[in-house]
Amino acid sequence: MTGTCWCFATTSLVESESNRKIQKEIDLSEMFTVRNIYIEKAKNYILRQGKTQFGEGGLGHDMIRSIATYGAMPLSVYAGLPAGQTMYNHAKLFASLQNYLDEVLKKTPVDDDWLLGYTKILDSTLSEPPAKFNYQGKEYTAKTFAKEVLHFDADDYISLTSFTHEPYYKPFILQVPDNFSNGSFYNLPLSELIEVTKSAISKGYTVSWDADVSNNGFKQGIALALNLDQKIKYNKDSITADMAEMPYTPAIRQHLYENLTTQDDHLMHLTGMEKSKSGKTFFIVKNSWGKVGPCDGYINVSESYFAINTISIVMPKAALSKTLLLKLGFKK
């Protein structure tokens, strides 16, 4: 396991968009993006003299920005796994990287070539990606692959959130630990965030979803996520899709964010919607924890759970209505 769910979830979004737009299924390398962002994290850590977040985590916009900056490549070309391993585990790697950077900062001025030593440690686990590679009979670089095969444009995606301490319909820097790159998110009223997500799914788009999953309502083992009373210990046999849930409002959501109950735990991929027997709306969510639970790794997330626990989302900008785009300041 790694803390790179941000990359897996948003890579799945980009793959889905590629399939939707050009009817081509492409399995992208998550670790190519992870490696590039790990290098960005190191540069940020040095420039901020160690007084910043340094960890495996990130947000969906980091993956979008990485492709825009560095390109992308297929998983078949670069898996980022040591020989003989089939699972990613970056715990030891990150401990080594952190120790190295802290040693670099003990000397001022820092050595001009500190990044070479950092990259050497990084590549001892992930390996160095190829500068060029062949894909379906043609040679590409990561950047030409992103442009010519994926037809990728970072401007095709938008990052959204909903909190009451900032003005609506304006972008702001989301205050969560994993927003190391100080990315901005457009702020929507909660009802509109929910509706734009539903609308995107109904139009055939998918959504990268950042949410808190550390509460008692997230039950991957039974493929359900419900907005349950946090003071009650539930028997899993008593949890059903149609059971009553706790209420949600913007004020409740804001309070849980500000008292640090709701945190940026985990990113997943919203791929569809369905109704329960009583008519409750559920999002069909692809998780990255493997084939866990009765739905082979997918989980059904109630609208109420989504409303309370969402930190942010990334989705194709084309999924937004013209009216909403104008409210956000986009002229076309």
Automatic annotation (TrEMBL):
Gene3D superfamilies linked: Cysteine proteinases
Sorted UniProt keywords: Aminopeptidase, Hydrolase, Protease
InterPro entries documented for this protein: Papain-like_cys_pep_sf, Peptidase_C1B
EC number annotated for this UniProt entry: 3.4.22.40
GO biological process: proteolysis
EC top class named in words: hydrolase
GO molecular function: cysteine-type aminopeptidase activity; cysteine-type endopeptidase activity
Protein name (record): Aminopeptidase C
Source species: mine drainage metagenome
Lineage: unclassified sequences, metagenomes, ecological metagenomes
